[in-house]
Amino acid sequence: MMYSTVQFIFYTAFVLLILYYTPRRFKLWCVFLASIIWYLNWGALWFSIFAGIIILNIGILFLFKKRSDKKLFPYLVGLNVFIFVLLKVLPEFIRFRTPYGTSFFMLILLGMIIDYWREETPIQKEDILPAMVMPLFFPVLMAGPIERRKHFFPQLKTIPPFSLNNLVDGILIFSIGYLKKFLIVDPYSRSVLSSSGIDNFIYQGLLDTFITYVLFCSYSEMGRGCAKAMGIDLAISFRPFYYAKNPNEFWQRWNITLGTWMRDYVTFPAMFKWGRKINPDFIILFSFLLMGLWHGIGLNWLCFGLLNGLAIYAFNVSQRKWSLPGIGVFLSVSIWVGNGLFQHKDFWHRMTRSFELIPELRVHDINLSLFLGAIGLLFVFEFIQEKKNKSDFFTSWSLWIKLTIAVLVLFYFGWKLDDNSLIQTFDLPPVYFRI
Q1: Element housing 117 (H / E)
Q2: What are 192's strand-pairing partners?
Q3: GO MF terms on file (predicted)?
Q4: pTM
Q5: Residue 14: what pLDDT?
């Protein structure tokens, strides 16, 4: 069930209804079962594999508790990295496709294990259920965020009772995400963009990165809205990246939880261990190469990581030696164009073809006025977010104002059900999303 489908909306409403009548001490079990059912929708075999991975890890964590052997943890981390690599590499050689969110699942699980290792805290019996729910929690598996144990466990252990305020906020957050996809991503995916010339890959790179940003934002916000309605606050993964003044700030806005995960579990530990022998800038570059391969196995994703790592390396060096004005913005725009280009496995063909043709840009099969108007509204909305320095600034409004808007949103969804617009959005995201 994709988040933007009528099936998912009714499923989430049913889960919320069950949660409302479930005693507080059993609410986490309800969320666990809801996540299992959601994952079974993708296939019983894959759910069995992921359930087996979770049970294996929790079992080994209990083995660590009994033996008090800290040396066991590196082997456990290595085992999970090996499983992760297999899930990434095998589809390149064998004809099968992993479910959506596999990479999110593995990073959440790895982060949880490493946190236990660092804190030297044995897993307790009361941690078993949260540890099983955390990597399977269905609102985070489509587009993140990559949650951490310190932030997520306390919320899972004390899921609050039903709150009208949380429900309304959840509906509004979900609706904003859905409207981004319905008004911007869907029309763009149905359109035919014909462009040629040297500026083709610039147009295409800018557009693809922007559309990917809106798509990720939309699914992330739909997931956050579902979790908020349950009383669970998820971390924010995306902020408007086009306000970034340098590559470092770009990655403080783009896939935020992925960047902080790599920083805390790869970059900083490597600097701490090898910082005196290896230039820290090269460690950062290596981290971005890994981040590129996290998205997918292929030359395009390796170039994706290399571009971002080199941009940050160039910016850091320039600031230390010359402090060149405007270099940060130039490198940020380069990342913007390059990230869109390197999403495609045929990126080299796209680039070489661009130099052979005369510049021309045409858009077909799209209501251009509505499309551009929706983008304009998005810019205004995100400009207000930047000014207020708060992503969900409307959550501080009066409950009655939010309730009125939520009712109008529900009427809108009802209207879309009548003309089958919601059902028609049962599409699969681009390859970039199968991570």
Answers
A1: helix 102-119
A2: 364
A3: acyltransferase activity
A4: 0.85
A5: 92
